[in-house]
């Protein structure tokens, strides 16, 4: 199912009116307060309906959020706290709105002003471009995938996890935002291989430690690390002899070099991983730009 | 002999019909009591489903209604309406309540009020709303048992007696 299949009929019909050519490659549908609904593809954007008259009101957004949460906001508070809602099939709706603080802690969101329906991609073989860069006679080293948003990090990580698992490795996926496995009400949205366990909705650092302690994995897979506690957990996993596949937001290897954790005596995130792949969307999402191993650039995509 | 048997048959049939009529007339009272008893049971089951398991309302209602046959079709209807992604919860809830046999107007007021507030806030507030509705429904059940059941029994007895009296007069 597509993410817009969960919209009320009137919006769903408008999305379907885009036509097969656009529908095939819609990446996002964005609902914004006082603006028309916009659909985005790789190199295009299009308004739904009449841009002059079909503008969204607060009431429309509130109704949409309620429907997306199955009219059970209390059951989705943890997701709202992180500004998203998960849909079946691994799709996700990003939410913009006003944060509600309670006892100094962000407790939920209110006054919703924007919704971003993102279509999750499950591309079998997406990881092959990365895997081809490694010596096939040697085990794959722990790998960090660095890329800006919307470059296909999660798709790549998902396929790498599946590749390892199908190769007989025991894989533990720490899926804090239910994006990698797309777990939703007792079902996985994506197949991650026969030998994969999923720690769904676990905070990354706690999830990594729990996986090492209890699941005996050969590999831990984690999306979008960044906080000091994440880096410490990754370091612990690597020290324990567990391979780590992770992704991080960074536009280049040089940007990555700047991310360091003082608690790890200044160890740079790039130094934690034996291999770092830098990804872009220059030739479509998942374009491998560079591969670094031991601070050496060992491969670069011709410009 | 044959006439005597026919009279006896007619007398028995009249008494049975009167009893059945009385039973039919008392049915709404009994149905209401069943609907209220089972509805209160559902509210009790909903508390852990919402407060502890944090299940969505459609699933919570389906699970909570399993031991309560009078409410099963309501829970099923609610899940179907919500699954269409095209209605607000209060409307879906109000329409699904029509599947519950025996609820009276004053009972529906309490349930519809609950339908307006369910799902819209944090779990603790949901639990408060459930508790308030449970208290109100318990009061209505008490009323139904003390007044309604009395009326039901009286109706049954009176109509049955009327049938018996008719038989005596006819004989």
Automatic annotation (TrEMBL), chain A:
<dbReference type="Pfam" id="PF19568">
    <property type="entry name" value="Spore_III_AA"/>
</dbReference>
<protein>
    <recommendedName>
        <fullName>AAA+ ATPase domain-containing protein</fullName>
    </recommendedName>
</protein>
<feature type="domain" description="AAA+ ATPase">
    <location>
        <begin position="139"/>
        <end position="283"/>
    </location>
</feature>
<dbReference type="InterPro" id="IPR027417">
    <property type="entry name" value="P-loop_NTPase"/>
</dbReference>
<keyword id="KW-0547">Nucleotide-binding</keyword>
<dbReference type="InterPro" id="IPR045735">
    <property type="entry name" value="Spore_III_AA_AAA+_ATPase"/>
</dbReference>
<keyword id="KW-0067">ATP-binding</keyword>
<dbReference type="InterPro" id="IPR003593">
    <property type="entry name" value="AAA+_ATPase"/>
</dbReference>
TrEMBL record, chain B:
<dbReference type="InterPro" id="IPR014198">
    <property type="entry name" value="Spore_III_AB"/>
</dbReference>
<protein>
    <recommendedName>
        <fullName>Stage III sporulation protein AB</fullName>
    </recommendedName>
</protein>
<dbReference type="Pfam" id="PF09548">
    <property type="entry name" value="Spore_III_AB"/>
</dbReference>
């Amino acid at each position: 199912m597509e993410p817009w299949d969960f919209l009320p009929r009137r919006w769903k019909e408008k999305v379907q009116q885009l036509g097969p050519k656009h529908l095939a490659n819609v990446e996002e549908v964005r609902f914004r307060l006082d603006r028309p609904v916009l659909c985005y593809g790789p190199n295009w954007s299009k308004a739904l309906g009449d841009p002059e008259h079909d503008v969204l009101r607060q009431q429309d957004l509130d109704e949409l959020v309620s429907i997306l949460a199955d009219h059970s906001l209390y059951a989705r508070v943890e997701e709202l706290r992180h500004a998203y809602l998960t849909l079946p099939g691994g799709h996700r709706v990003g939410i913009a709105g006003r944060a509600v603080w309670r006892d100094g802690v962000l407790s939920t969101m209110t006054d919703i002003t924007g919704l971003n329906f993102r279509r999750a991609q499950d591309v079998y073989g997406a990881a092959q471009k990365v895997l081809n860069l490694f010596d096939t006679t040697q085990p794959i080293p722990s790998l960090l995938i660095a890329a800006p948003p919307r470059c296909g990090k999660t798709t790549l990580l998902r396929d790498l996890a599946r590749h390892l698992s199908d190769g007989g490795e025991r894989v533990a996926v720490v899926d804090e935002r239910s994006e990698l496995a797309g777990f939703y009400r007792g079902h996985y949205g994506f197949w991650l291989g026969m030998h994969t366990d999923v720690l769904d909705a676990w905070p990354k650092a706690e999830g990594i430690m729990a996986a090492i302690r209890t699941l005996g994995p050969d590999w831990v897979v984690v999306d979008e690390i960044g906080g000091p506690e994440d880096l410490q957990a990754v370091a612990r996993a690597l020290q324990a002899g567990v391979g780590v596949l992770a992704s991080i937001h960074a536009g280049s290897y040089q940007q990555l070099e700047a991310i360091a954790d003082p608690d790890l005596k200044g160890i740079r995130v790039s130094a934690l991983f034996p291999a770092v792949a830098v990804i872009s969307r220059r030739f479509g999402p998942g374009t491998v730009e560079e591969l670094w191993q031991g601070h050496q650039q060992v491969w670069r995509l011709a410009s | 002999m044959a006439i005597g048997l026919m009279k006896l048959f007619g007398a028995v049939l009249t008494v049975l019909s009167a009893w059945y009529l009385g039973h039919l007339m008392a049915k709404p009272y009994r149905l209401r009591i069943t609907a209220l008893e089972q509805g209160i049971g559902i509210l009790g089951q909903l508390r852990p489903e919402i407060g502890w398991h944090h299940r969505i309302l459609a699933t919570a209602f389906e699970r909570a209604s399993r031991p309560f046959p009078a409410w099963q079709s309501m829970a099923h209807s609610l899940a179907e309406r919500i699954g269409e992604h095209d209605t607000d919860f209060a409307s879906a809830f109000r329409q699904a309540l029509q599947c519950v046999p025996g609820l009276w107007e004053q009972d529906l007021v309490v349930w519809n009020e609950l339908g307006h507030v369910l799902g819209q806030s944090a779990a603790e507030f949901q639990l408060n709303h459930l508790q308030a509705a449970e208290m109100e429904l318990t009061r209505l059940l008490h009323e139904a048992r003390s007044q309604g059941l009395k009326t039901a029994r009286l109706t049954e007895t009176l109509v049955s007696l009327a049938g018996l009296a008719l038989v005596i007069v006819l004989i």
